[in-house]
Amino acid sequence: MAGDFLGVPLLFIGFILIVNAIWLQGKVDTKDVGIFNLLVGILATIGALYFGLVQNNFPLSAGGLLFAMTYLWVGINAVRGAEDQRALGYYCLLVAFTTVSYAIKAFMDGDLGWTFEWITYGILWYLFYQIMTKGNTKLMGMTIAMTYFVGIEVAITGWIYLYGYWPFGNWWPLQITAS
After folding, report:
1. Residue 34 lies in a domain
2. What parts of the sequence cross the membrane (predicted)?
């Protein structure tokens, strides 16, 4: 069976996004969500460093760290009870802008799956920016729905990568073969 380590952090990133959507609805404890964000942020950081330092895939490493830092920051803010999320919101805006170049690169390389992934990440992180810095509560329902959507999308992508099957292109080629 062929698989790719990329599936591991993606699976958990999908899960934390789903849990974060539930949190945005006020249905779970903030500190519990904070701890899960910290754990996923650590896992995503390890994964991103692995891709850069071991596989020399620096674009994947940088992309992974964009999101790992988000989960670490959300986790720290949740555990410490921070109410002002504006700095994190501005970081989310920078992430949203960065996803545009990743989506263009994926599209130019013929990987429509990752093009879609990066576009949806960018939309979601832009919504986070609007909520955290502008206090745009009118977008909360859309943000929650988009967080669920992207969470499910990323979890499915992670599962697909775990089993070595990515039918949409080869922008992040499957690099690890297990027997």
Report:
1. yes
2. 6-23, 35-52, 58-76, 88-108, 114-132, 144-166
Q: Tally Cβ neighbours within 10 Å of residue 54.
A: 11
User: What's the pLDDT tens digit per position in 49-83?
Assistant: 999 999 898 999 999 999 999 999 999 999 999 99
Helix axis angle, 7-24 to 30-53, nearest 10°: 160
pTM of the model: 0.91
From the list 38, 179, 105, 146, the residue with the least C-alpha distance to 46 is: 38
Give the residue numbers spanning the domain of 16: 7-158
80-122, pLDDT tens digit by residue? 999 999 999 999 999 999 999 999 999 998 889 999 999 999 9
Domain CATH number, residue 62: 1.25.40.600
What's the structural domain count of the chain?
1
